[in-house]
Amino acid sequence: MSSNKLPYEKYRVAGDLIFVSGQLPIDPTTGEIVSEEIKAQANQIMINISQVLEELDLTMNQVVKTTCFLTDMNHFEAFNQVYAEHFGERFPARSAFQVVALPKDALIEIEWVLSKA
């Protein structure tokens, strides 16, 4: 599944659940963080997860849980605006935490749990 050289898979299937590794705001064509701005980073993560969902023949309605890691909770409101735009009116369960740092100096990372049911 994973083309990276790090010791993890892009996702793992366990019954009807699919656990997706943390998504960073990386442009898949360049391998770099898309921007230093939180909304652009959040949007790129949503683009990246959309590609995973398409690969699995799933939709955003099948996202049942997200765990969001932000390096600065002052970005929380702007992040929520982008997040809400991509989910519409049906949101998954969610946790959000501030962390000291993320890989590649990203401002945000999101882990996903999907349901095939």
Large-scale geometry? globular
Number of domains: 1
Structural class: alpha+beta
Order of helical and strand elements: EEEEHEHEE
Proportion of residues in extended strands: 25-35%
What summary fits the major beta sheet? Answer: 5 strands, mixed
InterPro entries: RidA, RutC-like_sf, YjgF/YER057c/UK114
EC number: 3.5.4.-
Keywords: Hydrolase
Enzyme class: hydrolase
List the helices and strands and how they pair.
Blueprint: E1 11-14, E2 17-23, E3 26-27, E4 32-33, H1 38-56, E5 63-70, H2 76-87, E6 93-98, E7 108-115
Parallel strand pairs: 5-6
Antiparallel strand pairs: 1-2, 2-7, 3-4, 5-7
Helix pairs in contact: 1-2
InterPro entries: RidA, RutC-like_sf, YjgF/YER057c/UK114
Keywords: Hydrolase
GO molecular function, one term: deaminase activity
Question: Could you list some keywords that capture this structure?
Answer:
globular, Endoribonuclease L-PSP, about 120 residues, two-stranded antiparallel sheet, alpha+beta, 5-stranded mixed β-sheet, RidA, 60s Ribosomal Protein L30, Chain: A
